[in-house]
Write a structure and sequence with these properties.
The chain is of the alpha/beta class and 250 residues long. It is 36% helix and 16% strand.
């Protein structure tokens, strides 16, 4: 994919996820070879081959590749049913700056391209992902499954759980596990609720760069351009995770 954001300097999160991005899990060579084609070209070619309005993009990272693909070939917008993107914040502020979430702060210009593309966008933001708290009880339910896949997931979550509790306070019930939220929404959207609102992103201010501005009360004349999620059934989401892990035999 793209080696850097569209405009700003690159930002990384090795301080948060570890140098490998896999927490405490050892890195191994994948059995599937790397795709030789550039990610942007792959997106364009693959999307153009699909029926109109048939593809859902699950985006758990900054939107650079998606935005560049839309600029390179605007026709792909018609192939996309919706983009489900983990990013943004309103009531929760930010997790990278006081006002910006990581996936937006890394490339806010990319989010701007997506939000102004006319594509249906679901914003799985910090306000809702912070409701998905990995408690000890929920972690134990994953560890008790006993399959290799559940063991790997349990090990990663244990590393994350213990590290963050030591950093943010051992008295906490647990800390949010945000990354499962996008797939959970796609599999069971009834576990989430929200409102169609206008969302814009700040691209200039040094104080609020990357902030998502959500027009909750319709104070502007800008039409709704995203489904802004506001509530999640945390028990239902974690039960969905357990159910999916139980189906994996490997």
């Amino acid at each position: 994919g793209c080696g850097r954001p569209i405009v700003r300097d690159p930002v990384t999160a090795d301080y948060y996820h570890g140098m490998t991005g896999m927490g405490g899990i050892g890195v191994f060579e994948p059995s599937v070879p790397l795709e030789p084609e550039h990610a942007v070209n792959f997106l364009v070619r693959t999307l153009l081959s699909q029926p109109d309005g048939s593809v859902t993009l699950a985006c758990l990272a900054p939107l650079t590749n998606v935005a560049v693909a839309l600029v390179l070939e605007p026709r792909i917008a018609g192939k996309i049913r919706e983009i489900v993107f983990m990013g943004g914040a309103q009531k929760e502020g930010g997790n990278t700056t006081p006002t910006a979430s990581f996936n937006v702060f890394c490339d806010p210009h990319a989010l701007h391209v997506v939000l102004t593309s006319g594509i249906s966008v679901v914003m799985v933001n910090l306000d809702v992902t912070h409701q998905l708290v990995m408690t000890s009880r929920r972690l134990e339910a994953i560890q008790e499954i006993g399959t290799p896949a559940a063991q790997v997931v349990g090990d990663m979550l244990t590393w994350d759980h213990e590290r963050r509790l030591s950093n943010y306070g051992a008295g906490a019930e647990g800390l949010p596990v945000s990354d499962l939220s996008v797939i959970a929404y796609i599999l069971e959207p009834s576990l989430f609720s929200g409102r169609k609102l206008n969302v814009a992103v700040e691209l200039v201010s040094p104080l609020t760069f990357g902030m998502t501005i959500v027009d909750t009360w319709g104070l502007t004349d800008r039409p709704p351009n995203a489904l802004w999620l506001q509530h999640a059934d945390a028990d239902g989401v974690f039960q969905l995770l357990v159910n999916c892990l139980r189906k994996l035999k490997a």
